[in-house]
Recover the amino acids of this structure.
């Protein structure tokens, strides 16, 4: 995940977005809950890497979970974070906190990815690849969150019971 250093204009736009009830409501309208999943699922646009994309303002788009992090912890905390990682291995997840979106480092992120990729049932090992999987699950979440729950159940059947599976 590339670190996007916030310039002064970017920081100001982000701070304004976090403080705007209209922008926050527009962001929250894209979130859904899925039964059996602790994640908060993004149903908006998805980037090539499977991350949510959120239009903060005209011409200004950012990774959705970075907006979530700034909302929860402030723009300064986001600017200070080297990188954000998904401990739940769900790039669509917007839940900020232990087990989901956390601050990390490039080294730590790469080490975690390598360690979890080969775990049976890990979404990182999904043959669909992270981009296709994220898009498919996003589409399901958008249509009906129950369909995502069904997909997770299906994966558990394919790969075996995996309590940590998102
Ligand atoms: Zn999550």
């Amino acid at each position: 995940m590339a670190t996007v250093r916030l310039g002064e204009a970017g920081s100001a736009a982000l701070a304004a977005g976090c403080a705007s009830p209209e922008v926050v409501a527009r962001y929250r309208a894209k979130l859904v809950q899925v039964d059996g999943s602790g994640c908060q699922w993004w149903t908006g646009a998805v980037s090539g890497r499977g991350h949510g994309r959120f239009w903060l303002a005209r011409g200004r788009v950012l990774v959705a979970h970075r907006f979530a992090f700034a909302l929860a912890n402030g723009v300064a905390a986001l600017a200070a974070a080297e990188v954000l990682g998904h401990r739940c291995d769900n790039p669509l997840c917007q839940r900020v906190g232990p087990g989901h979106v956390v601050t990390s480092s490039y080294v730590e992120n790469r080490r975690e990815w390598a360690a979890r990729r080969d775990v049976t049932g890990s979404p990182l090992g999904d043959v669909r690849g992270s981009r296709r999987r994220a898009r498919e699950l996003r589409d399901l979440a958008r249509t009906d969150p129950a369909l995502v729950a069904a997909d997770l159940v299906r994966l558990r059947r394919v790969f075996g019971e995996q309590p940590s599976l998102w």
The chain has seven helices and seven strands. The beta strands are 31-33, 40-42, 45-46, 52-57, 60-63, 83-86, 101-104.
